[in-house]
Structure formats: structure tokens, C-alpha cells
Specification:
By secondary structure, the protein is an alpha/beta fold. The chain has one domain: Rossmann fold, CATH 3.40.50. Helix content is 44%, strand content 10%. The chain has 12 helices and 7 strands. Strands 3-1-2-4-7 form a 5-stranded mixed β-sheet, with helices on both faces. It has a two-stranded antiparallel ribbon with strand order 5-6. Strand 1 and strand 2 form a beta hairpin. Helix 8 packs parallel to helix 11. The radius of gyration is 19 Å and the shape is globular.
Amino acid sequence: MIVCHRHRFIFVTTRQTTGTRVQLALADNCSPGDLMTGRETANDVARAHGSNVESAIGSGRFGRLRSLDRLWHLVRGKQAGLPKHMSATEIRDVVGTATWDSYFKFCVERNPWEKAVALYDRRTRGLQKRPPIADFLAKAGTESLSNYHLYTIDGVLAVDRVIRYEHLAAELQAVHNLLNLAAPVVLPPEVHLDDRRHYSTRLGATERAIIDAVCKREIETFGYGFAEIAPENR
């Protein structure tokens, strides 16, 4: 998640949509006083620009934390961070309704079947024996397989733009132009560690039914369709 006061935008980080790469691409436009959550790599970029954002969050110098977060900070005696995948409702609670309503809000969404396969690959990568994909999906839970709850409030779209993962670079550049960002937005190189086969070659009827049910809302909202590829292209 990024809350950039300088350029008045909020980036809602969704799962399995290369959110860390997007945060890194946006980091050069962030200043001390902005909020950024996520992996150390993203925070390291902010430190390079003189802003230890996650530490500052806990101390209360940046943004406004809910009382529960402040209590956690006091009890643990250490800086309280915010989770990377905060929902629109949670972010609104932290920054306040006035800021939430007046800032440009955006996120990234991805083909749900491709996203589910990517999630499986990431979470089972270190296992000597990976479980069948169907078993994994059945246990993964809605909040892991679907991002819909992250960028909606009470079931209604709460962001101003949903970037399609399939056109990530172009749509991110469009947001850059819209917000008139000072620094260029350049995505770091993507590291491919997972099985690169098309998702349709890895998902059968059982797996597809699980994803269809869990991700029904984003499938309908964004018109996603399950794509089959010709055998010779597999």
C-alpha cells in the first residue's frame, strides 16, 4: 500500500499482481510523510530517499494509526507496521475519510485463473512434495484467491481505476501521466521462477469450478474469460 500526499494518490496493493514491483516503480515519487508498506525491498527504496517509512508509521510521525495499532506499538515496545495487503476500508480508517475521498485511488487486478496458479506456485515453491492444485485451492480461502474485497467497500468498487495486469506497463504509464508524477515509473525486471505453462494446461474442471465460484464478482465486473490455447502452443 502507498499513500502519497505529494501527488495525492493511494495505491491499494492486491495479491499476486506484482504489487512489490509496482511499489518500487512508484517509490521515486514518494516523500517523507508518505506511507508505504510491504517487503523490505520496497522500504529500502524509500530509505534511499531519506524516508524510513515503515518505522515512521509506527512512531506516528506519518499518517494516523488506529488505536489498536498504537496499543500494539506500546505493548511490544517496537515500531508497529501496517500489513501490505490492506483493504480499502482499512486504508480509509488509517488516512481518514477526507483524504480517502479526495485522493486518486488505484490498484491492479489479474486474470483469476492465472492468479490462482501463480498463488499455488508461490506458496508451494519450497515444498518437496507439492499438493495437487485442487487440494490447495480448496483450502486457500476466498481472501487468498480473490482481491475483490481489497478494492471494494460494501461490495461497491472503491477505487478510481483498476489497472489490468495484462496491460500493466501501459496502464501504469497512463496513471503516471494522469497524476503528472515527477519521476518516471519504471517497473523493475520480472523474475520468472514459476511454471510458465499457460494456466489452462494446469487447471481441470474441479480447479476451474473452485476459482469460478470464489472469483465470480471480478469475473463479472471485468469480463474475464477462461482462455484455452491450442495443443501445439502448450
